[in-house]
Every structure is written in C-alpha cells, then in structure tokens.
Design a protein that fits this description.
It is a single chain. With 850 residues, the protein is an alpha+beta fold. 14% of the residues lie in helices and 33% in strands. The chain is built from 12 helices and 50 strands. A 7-stranded parallel β-sheet has the order 20-21-19-23-25-26-27, with helices on both faces. Strands 14, 15, 16, 17, 22 and 24 form a 6-stranded antiparallel β-sheet that branches. Strands 41, 42, 44, 46, 47 and 49 form a 6-stranded antiparallel β-sheet that branches. α7 packs parallel to α10, α8 packs parallel to α9 and α10 runs parallel beside α12. The longest helix has 18 residues. The radius of gyration is 28 Å and the shape is globular.
Length: 850
C-alpha cells in the first residue's frame, strides 16, 4: 500500500516537531485501473491508483443567483465555480448591480472568506466578494483588482456571500476557514496587512539567488532582515491605486483599502510559498496580551495560597542568579515594587504607531502605555512582572511568586498587540542568540514568560522557540482568553509550557482556553466574583501604573496572570536546582521524571491529563521538593537512551485511512522499543517492536463501525535509561459522513525527474471516484503530479487550481502497471491545509498534454 505525506496543518505544526513528524495518508480501498489514453507497447508501462479529495471540497451548484436558491456552505468549505457579468443575478436592495453567485452561510464562529480568480487578464475579468445580511442588504465587500479577495465574516447570524463579476468572466475558488481550521490564516487570527515573513533556502543552486532580487521581482520591499535567513517583506501601495476601488460601480465601503491590502497579502503568500527559493512564507501575525483588566483595588493575594506558595517559601524564596525575561508591553521601570529587580532589556517594536513612544527599536523597554489617547493603558507587562517577581518582604505593595530574581523587560507588544517578527527577535535576544537588535544580554535569560496569545501558526515563532529551548531556556506561555479549544500560539508550539487559568475555587476560569496542548494550570482569577467574601474581586493583584504616571496596584484576570505564576514558580525551582533543563520541567509536570516520584501538580478535573487543566494546578511546595530530588537537573549531555515520539496525538478524519509517527532516540545509547500496543480493535499498527528509530503506520479498519467519533491510545514501551520508558499517543477517529469531495476534472501527469516535462497523462473526475491509469511511458523513474486546469489554459497547478503530488518517485517497468498510487489533492488557492506540492522542485504551473 502506497502512502503520501499529509498536508501541513496549523494544529499539527504548532504542537508537533515538523522535522520529525511523518504523517501519511494511505489508500482507503484498493483501486483498479482504467482511464488510460495512450497506446501500450511491450517496452512501456503504466501507473494507476486514485486521488484523495477531502470531503469539504466541492463545486458550485447552479442555479444559485437568488436568496432562496443560494447554495449552502459549511465552515471549511472550498468551492470552485464560474461567474460572468452577463449572468442573471440578484440585485441587492438599494443597489443597481447584480450578483451572479450566492452562497448561504450560518455559523456560530467567525469565518474568513477568500476568493481566488483564475482569469489571466484581471483588467478585463474582475470579480468581487460581497457580504449581505439575511435580508440581502450589502454590509461589506472586497473589491480589489488582483487575483485574490479577502473578507472576515462575523459569527452568530445568517449571511449571504456573493461572487460578483464586476466585468468579464472567470472561474474562481471560494474558500472558508474557521477559527479551528488547519488554516494558513484561521478566522480568529489577526495579521499585519501588507507584511510577510519569509525564510529563504540557503542550499544548492539557490544559494546564489539574491533574496532581495526575488522580492523586488515580486514587487515587494525588504522591511527588515533577521538572523537565519528570515526577512520581513512589505507590500508597497500599488502606484496604480489598486487598493482604492473607486471605479464607477464599485461600492468603496469604509475599510476597503485595508481589505484590499489583506487580500494582496494573501495572494503574495500563496505565490511565495510556491517559489523554490523559499523555505516558508507566512503572515506577520499579531498576538494580544492574555488578560482581562478591571478597576484598581488592593487586598490579599489569595492566588498564592491556592498553589501552596507560603509552604514553599519556608524552603526557598528565590535567587538573583536566575533571570526571567518578560516579553510583553514593557515594564514601568520606575515602579517601586519592581525597580531593584530589573536588568537591561530592549524594545523590539518596529512600527511607530504600535510603539507609541515616538521611536523604533532601542534599548529602552519602559512602557509608554498602549492607549494612544493616554487614558486607559493596560501596563500589562508591569502586572505580569510583579506577579512573577515583585520585590517582596519590603513592607511595600505586593509579593511576587519569587522574592528574588532578575527581571529582563523586553518590549514586543504595543498598541493593539504585538507582531511575530518583533516577538521572535525578543525570544532570540533573551536566549542570547543573534537578533535584530545587534546585541545580546550579558547573560541569557533562564526562562521566558510570554503572557500573550493569538491564532495562526508561525514558523518564524516556532523556530525562535526551538532555538531558545536548545539553549536551555524554559519557555512559558498563556493559553489565551477566548474560552476556546482553538490552538493558540505560542502556547501550542512544541517546547512551550502552556498554562490555563483557574479561579479561586480551582475551577477552570470562564475565559480560559483549553485543549490537548495545555500542560498545567495556575491561578488566573475572576474579577466578576468575590467568592471568599473579602470585599474585593477575585482577580490577581499585582503592580500597575496609570497614564498619568502613578504607580499603583490592580486586580487583573486572565491566562496571562496564570502564566506569570508558572514562570515565577519555575524560577523558584531553578533557585533550588540551577541545573534543571526544559526537559526536566516537562517530565516533572507530566509526573514522568525518572529521578523523583513527587508530583508537582494537583490533579483537577478528569483523572490524569485533560484538556482543561493539563496535568493539574501547580503545587509550589511539591515543586520545590521535586526539583531538589533531581540530581544535577540533567544539564549535562545525555549518556543513555531517551524515548521520544514525534507526536502526542493522531487524528483520523473520515477520509483518512492511515497515519504514521516516528519513534526516535534522543539520547546516545541504543534504544530498544520493547512493545507498541493499542487498545482499539479498529486500529492496526505496522510495528510492535524494534530498534529506534522506527516509523510506525497506524491504519484504520472502519468495517462494522457506526457513525461517530472514536478514541484510543497507542502505548510505546522501551528500555530507555533516561527519562520515561513509556510514551502515549492519543488517537481520535471519525466514522461516517461524506468521504470524498469534488474538484472537477483532474489531469494526472508523469514528469521526467530532471526536466519536469510531462511524458504521459490520465484524466479523472468524481464520477470515476478519481481512479486513474496513465498512458504508457518508457521504463524509468518519474514524478507523479495531478491538478485541475480551471482556466483551461493548458497548465495545471496554477494558483486557482487543486494540486497534489506523490512525495516519492514512481518506477515504471516494461509491460507492467505500477498500481496503488494515492495522494491528496489540495487547493493551492485555499489558505487551508498548507502546500501539498512536496515532491516537485518547482510548484507549477505544469503544461498538460493536449
């Protein structure tokens, strides 16, 4: 059975390690030949198989030009269609134009809609995206003059989404993404319009390519250059005014220029992702501080007793040999409860409007406030810093989790949040790595507090996190405050301790995010209650300031506050054992550290690890005991064997038949995997033991299963001499529902590996279940690629096309058919699911055989 690499996705890339993650999709069933269109000779051979089309992919269902006939779309739908200015259509109330295609959308969560236009000549073939309310009244529009339109759709109401041919005609792809989608830009994500983070490939013939020249050729400007080949590219305003849709007949609604720039950003992202000189291209996502502020007050800090801090302080109160980097809005450097704790930091905010201090990056991390009006700034970083390490036992203000520690203030969040480009450089600075400031601290930080969150996976951010962790830095992040299971970054990134929030009753705070990536819980508070009856809201009390220059104290609530508690606690643990490593902390949190049986968390919720509290709420007293019991903290290089699996979870959508994972040895000595077992009769494992590294395929047998969701656990046991000898992988599987989509006619090509010229072709469609057999080809090794040709220009895998490829070459043998080929078709036009063209050096377009 052949397998193919799964498409890159947001949750997978955020919680797994891409370099070692091997996800594969296998054939759902055996497939026969048929569909060949050439003469076969004794010296020639063929290739056959079928294509996997995700079930959310479909085609326009006509007629759909009235409200009553509008085609209903679900979240995550990807629809291909055609529209012409000559088509009959719906005329919205108060308007004189018609909308050719209408789609009905009702969702409880926000959505992003993107329209990709296939026409080559966009001056003659201009399509627009129109949003209407339940009565058909226009409420928003995207009316640019490029091949992409982009729009945000609110939650909780009935809407109609219209595709209007302003002039001419074109095929198109309409794509919806929700906040939980595996999307390049999920609906909850915010990004800087007109900015793109790109990492260039350094190897091979591309080493001589000049990234600045490539960017310039695409009409982009290099705004900033960062270490490890990462550039921040800026899209200049088009000279022809294409961000200002003011032609006669255009709606030109407020905000149209911003929407046009968002659409242009998405278009450039897609095209850069197909450039062989590019490792990745992604939006410059914005992250927001994870807090919910309330009116100022002052009272006892109940949250410390909840995590047994007074008992811990009897053992240790911290040390000034430990440094905690606070990546946030900056810190009020003059606050009397913080001043003596602070060491030199840096301000990384590039955007002058966001910085709100009149200049760009500099060595002054003082917080000028994040309200440009100077009325209600959050001074969020000051609050976080005070919780982690305010000056304590000084008869002033409040206590910090650790009484003695150095705080390194790093400004990366300004007005309305912070951009990943700035955050990544702050992480690198804290870790003592090369960064955009051109300097590094005298001593790197021991841990980094990141009390902010946001949707959207960022390779730039993950690379920075990985580099910092490789330096031995512990990274702690807030889960986010949207009461959602949607993956949030940086908390869901591999190597980050993700912290959810509890209230005074040790219950999940109403606002706290949750999900499988949560590691631990800590007090976050609830400013809407006074459960202990002390006359004050049950928020977290810490250092604060006002826009008028006062230094005060205030109650906040949020996973930001929970994150600061965990960071302060990690600093206390480092005080009693300075050799603790990030891996030590991970194992202590999960209760799997080989050197101690002491649990540093108290289990909450369902027994064991769960999505609300992770492994439970941190217990400060037990944490210090456990830290002292770890000899040496594992700071030296491993000498034994260490068990590691590439993913903590596998999810089988209803069209996926098999997935793979890697079992590797992170140590030095040989690692024997003694058994690999599961607890579900429908799960079939390809390996049950062996010497690491191992690739294990997990196949699904849905025979006889009723429709619904199923769960299982894969258990990997080994003779590891360091760390845990056992690893668990959680499995989710769906049965029932639609299992195949429809992208229309697809052309399957065999390509010469060197020239990439097509030598044989087949055609297939949904009516044939996308089964194919190629025409005859001479014996040899070929690449297999498939795609649509929606604009009928003779090329597949244009930006508007569905496209996919087999990740390894296929061998054609004389007089034989090579069967069992299967791979996924993904939409190049869709911001969902990543980029499927993993095996072909250049991602099209490819000329098909006429």
């Amino acid at each position: 059975m052949s397998t193919i690499s799964a498409l890159g996705s947001w949750p997978a890339r955020s919680i797994l390690t891409p370099a070692i993650l091997l996800l594969s999709l296998a054939l759902l069933a055996g497939c026969g030949g048929g569909g060949g269109d050439g003469e076969e000779t004794a010296s020639a051979g063929t290739a056959s198989g079928h294509l996997i089309v995700p079930p959310n992919y479909g085609r326009e269902d006509e007629p759909n030009e009235t409200l009553s006939a509008a085609q209903e779309l679900a979240a995550s739908a990807v629809i291909s269609g055609t529209v012409s200015a000559a088509d009959p259509g719906f005329t919205p109330p108060g308007q004189s134009f018609t909308i050719g295609d209408l789609y009905r959308i009702q969702t409880s969560e926000p959505l992003n809609a993107s329209l990709t236009i296939a026409a080559d000549d966009l001056d003659l073939n201009d399509l627009d995206l129109i949003l209407l309310n339940s009565l058909g009244v226009v409420i928003d529009s995207s009316e640019g003059y490029t091949s992409t339109e982009f729009m945000e759709i609110p939650a909780g109401a009935l809407f109609y989404l219209g595709v209007r041919a302003f002039k001419g005609a074109s095929a198109y792809v309409l794509s919806l993404t929700s906040s939980t989608d595996t999307a390049l830009i999920p609906a909850a994500a915010r990004f800087v319009p007109g900015e793109i983070l790109v990492k260039w490939r350094p190897e091979g013939k591309l080493a001589a390519a000049r990234p600045m020249g490539i960017a310039a050729a695409r009409g982009l400007e290099t705004e900033a250059s960062f270490p490890e080949g990462v550039d921040l590219l800026k899209i200049p305003a088009p000279a022809d005014g294409r961000l200002r849709p003011q032609a006669a007949g255009k709606l030109s609604l407020p905000g149209s220029e911003v929407r046009a720039l968002q659409a242009l950003t998405l278009e450039h992202l897609r095209r850069l992702a197909g450039d062989p000189a590019v490792t990745y291209a992604e939006p410059n996502f914005l992250r927001r501080s994870a807090r919910v502020p309330n009116d100022p007050s002052f009272d006892l800090q109940w949250h410390y007793r909840l995590m047994n801090l007074p008992q811990a302080w009897d053992m240790a109160t911290g040390t000034n040999e430990v440094t905690v980097a606070i990546i946030d809005t900056g810190v009020l450097l003059g606050h009397p409860d913080l001043g003596s704790r602070l060491i030199q930091g840096f301000d990384f905010i590039r955007d002058l409007q966001s910085a709100n201090d009149g200049d760009g990056p500099d060595s002054d991390p003082d917080d000028p406030g994040d309200d440009p009006r100077g009325q209600s700034s959050s001074f969020h970083g000051t609050h976080v810093a005070g919780t982690a390490g305010a000056v304590t036992h000084n008869a002033v203000g409040v206590a910090g989790v650790t009484w003695q520690t150095r705080l390194m203030p790093l400004r990366a969040l300004g007005v309305d949040g912070g951009a990943d480009a700035d955050i990544a450089q702050a992480i690198r600075y804290a870790a003592g790595l090369p960064n955009s400031s051109g300097t590094v601290p005298a001593e790197r930080a021991d841990l980094i507090n990141m009390s902010f969150a946001g949707s959207g996976y960022s390779q730039t951010l993950e690379d920075a996190v990985r580099s910092a962790r490789n330096q031995g830095v512990i990274l702690v992040a807030a889960a986010g405050n949207s009461n959602s299971s949607a993956f949030q970054s940086p908390a869901s990134l591999t190597g980050v301790v993700a912290v959810s929030a509890v209230d005074l009753n040790s219950q999940k705070a109403a606002y706290s995010n949750f999900g499988p990536y949560i590691d631990v819980a800590a007090p976050g508070g609830n400013t809407g209650a006074d459960l202990n009856g002390d006359g004050y809201a049950d928020g977290v009390l810490s250092t604060m300031g006002t826009d008028q220059g006062e230094y005060i104290y205030r109650f906040y609530q949020g996973t930001s506050m929970a994150c600061a508690h965990m960071s302060g606690m990690a600093a206390l643990m480092l005080a009693v054992n300075p050799n603790l490593t990030p891996a030590d902390l991970d194992n202590l949190i999960s209760g799997t550290h080989p050197d101690t049986t002491t649990r540093i968390t108290r289990d909450l919720g369902e027994p064991g690890k769960d999505d609300l509290y992770g492994h439970g709420i941190i217990d400060a007293a037990q944490a210090l005991i456990a830290a002292q019991e770890v000899p040496g903290g594992g700071a030296t290089l491993p000498t034994g064997s260490i068990l590691q699996v590439s993913t903590p979870s596998l999810h089988f959508d209803n069209f996926i038949g098999a997935l793979s994972f890697e079992v590797t040895n992170a140590g030095i000595e040989t690692l024997e995997v003694t058994s690999i077992t599961d607890d579900a009769p429908w799960l079939i494992l390809s390996r049950t033991s062996g010497t690491a590294p191992l690739t294990v395929s997990a196949a699904i047998d849905r025979t006889g299963l009723s429709q619904g969701s199923y769960t299982a656990t894969i258990q990997v046991d080994s003779d590891a001499t360091e760390g845990s000898t056992r690893a668990l992988i959680q499995v989710e599987m769906e049965v029932g529902g639609k299992t195949m989509g429809d992208v229309g006619q697809v052309f399957i090509l065999l390509l010469e590996r060197g020239s990439l010229e097509a030598v044989a072709q087949a055609e297939s469609d949904a009516g044939r279940s996308y089964v194919f057999e190629t025409a005859a080809a001479e014996p040899g090794s070929y690449l297999v690629i498939a795609g649509t040709d929606r604009d009928d220009d003779g090329f597949i895998c244009d930006i508007e096309d569905a496209c996919g490829s087999l990740p390894e070459p296929v061998t054609i043998r004389a007089g034989q058919d090579t069967p069992g080929i299967a791979f996924v078709l993904g939409e190049l036009a869709s911001p969902q699911g990543g980029w499927p063209m993993q095996a072909v050096p250049e991602r099209g377009p490819f000329p098909r055989l006429r």
